[in-house]
């Protein structure tokens, strides 16, 4: 029988949840209003200057006027007003799909994306990611530093035919190469050290994987017959609604690695997966791989699996950009 005190605690939690949700909505609405204001100020200044009604010095005069007449209004220095003008001009020229997104993220992230993106496609990529994954300033800068946009455009992801059929959007969910510069580990370390390092940096690892991943456990125990087996890292993917097993190999990919992973997926689906969940997916994360060998090995795989590489250093951005240009040309 549930006690009165327990019922009260549940009620209190519901009220706290309502307050938190309203607080988040209020912040979101305030942010949208502020970004919309910056857009309108930028539009106004841009049109005044382009029509030659204002010279460039007028922006400084405007900033001085606001500071002198309305000292309580902050954020309208001449430098910031020029940023608002650039903000409006950048996104008014881009595809219409971008302008609604800019109002859903904060001003700081908008400035970072605007300053560091080279194309409308790249801006859309990071804007969309900020909205869907609620990236902080630090997280956004890390994704740009790790060349996530270029990687997503140049990757040749190795998936089994079963995984391609089961998850048509798999190439948007998984990656060919995962950058794990944050773990600070030498490549000669054994798999258990790599696993421990990832556990210690789980927040950063999930950022690299994608925020739809929920960490379940390390060395997840599977009992089959009278034997115990252990999945290196087990996650749950909210969008795909399935378990995702990561097996770590600090060596070059070998076809026999897939046999072990397939066995784990069978055990997960039989003994762990809930009835309403989708079949489990396996990711073999290797130090290195020969793409042709991987393709041969995956082609006959009857399980939803994929093979990816991990890198312990940030990629060469200029090299990736050249590769991307070559692909586009």
Can you describe what's shown?
By secondary structure, the protein is an alpha/beta fold. It has 15 helices and 7 strands. Strands 1, 2, 3, 4, 5, 6 and 7 form a 7-stranded mixed sheet that branches. Helix 13 (256-271) links the parallel strand 5 (242-252) and strand 6 (281-288). Helix 5 packs antiparallel against helix 6 (120-133).
Summarize the structure.
By secondary structure, this protein is of the alpha/beta class. It is 56% helix and 16% strand. The relative contact order is 0.09.
Which characteristics define this entry?
seven-stranded mixed beta sheet; 15 helices
The H-and-E topology, N to C, reads as HHHHHHHHEHHEHHEEEHEHEH
Oligomer, anyone? single chain
What is the 3D shape? elongated
Percent of residues in helical segments? 55-70%
How large a portion of the residues is in β-strands, by DSSP E? 15-25%
Low-confidence stretches: none
Count of helical segments?
15
Termini separation: 70 Å
Q: Sheet with the most strands?
A: 7 strands, mixed
* DSSP E strands, number: 7
What integer value in Å does the Rg equal?
Answer: 25 Å
Q: Please state the average pLDDT score.
A: 89
């Amino acid at each position: 029988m549930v006690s009165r005190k327990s019922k009260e605690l549940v009620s209190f939690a519901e009220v706290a949840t309502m307050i938190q949700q309203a607080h988040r909505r209020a912040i979101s609405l305030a942010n949208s209003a502020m970004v919309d204001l910056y857009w309108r100020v930028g539009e106004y200044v841009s049109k005044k200057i382009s029509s030659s009604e204002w010279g460039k010095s007028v922006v400084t005069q405007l900033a001085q006027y606001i500071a002198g007449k309305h000292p309580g209004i902050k954020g309208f220095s001449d430098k910031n007003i020029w940023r608002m003008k650039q903000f409006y001009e950048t996104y008014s020229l881009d595809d219409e799909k971008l302008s609604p997104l800019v109002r859903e993220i904060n001003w700081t992230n908008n400035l970072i994306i605007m300053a560091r993106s080279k194309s409308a496609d790249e801006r859309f990529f990071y804007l969309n990611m900020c909205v869907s994954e609620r990236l902080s300033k630090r997280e956004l800068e890390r994704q740009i530093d790790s060349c996530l946009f270029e990687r997503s455009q140049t990757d040749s992801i190795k998936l089994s035919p079963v995984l391609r059929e089961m998850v048509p959007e798999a190439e948007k969910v998984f990656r060919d190469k995962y950058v794990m510069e944050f773990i600070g580990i030498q490549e000669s370390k054994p798999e258990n050290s790599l696993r421990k390092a990832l556990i210690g940096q789980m927040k950063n690892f999930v950022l690299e994987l994608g925020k739809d991943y929920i960490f379940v456990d390390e060395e997840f125990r599977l009992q089959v017959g009278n034997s115990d087996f252990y999945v290196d890292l087990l996650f749950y993917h909210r969008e795909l609604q399935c378990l995702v097993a990561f097996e770590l190999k600090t060596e070059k990919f070998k076809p026999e690695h897939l046999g072990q992973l397939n066995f784990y997926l069978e055990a997960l689906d039989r003994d762990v997966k809930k009835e309403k969940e989708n079949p489990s997916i396996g990711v073999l994360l290797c130090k290195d791989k020969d793409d042709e060998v991987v393709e041969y090995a995956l082609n006959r795989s009857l399980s939803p699996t994929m093979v990816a590489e991990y890198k312990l250093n940030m990629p060469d951005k200029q090299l990736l950009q050249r590769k991307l240009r070559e692909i586009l040309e």
